Amino acid sequence: MLSSDMGVVSRPVVEIRLRYNTGMKRILVATTNQGKLSEYQSLLGDLQLELVSPDDIGVTLDVVEDGNTFEENAIIKAKAYAKETGLLTLADDSGLEVDVLGGKPGIHTARFGGVGLTPKERWQLLLERMKNVPFEDRTARFRCVVALSTPDGNIQT
Question: Which of 21, 76, 127, 149 shows its CA 20 to 30 Å from the CA of 120?
Fold first, then answer.
């Protein structure tokens, strides 16, 4: 069960401090998901930065996220895109961590249950695995780790 005070789920405050004077006003958001790009534009809109996606600048890059943690995967993606494009790059990795499943699906959330399952089928499988768990013990969290990489590989998470 995901819970919040008074039934309202608050959005996390995202603060990114650029420690490197790169002179860049354009930041690549390493995603092809336009919804995610819009979320970052909303969160970071007050910083007066131009956020662009790989599609916006004509970059196609297949990055294997083979880390063991959300942080490792976010760093892998941020570094690869920053090196390829020469742009300051923001990347994230995220997923659902269910306590009674030992933190699973975790970094495998998008592939939970195997290839070919729909999101609805993935959630049905998740609920099936918790069928004998009392409702009050079904606790979980959605974790997201953001990495920011300069083209020369300096990273902030």
Answer: 76
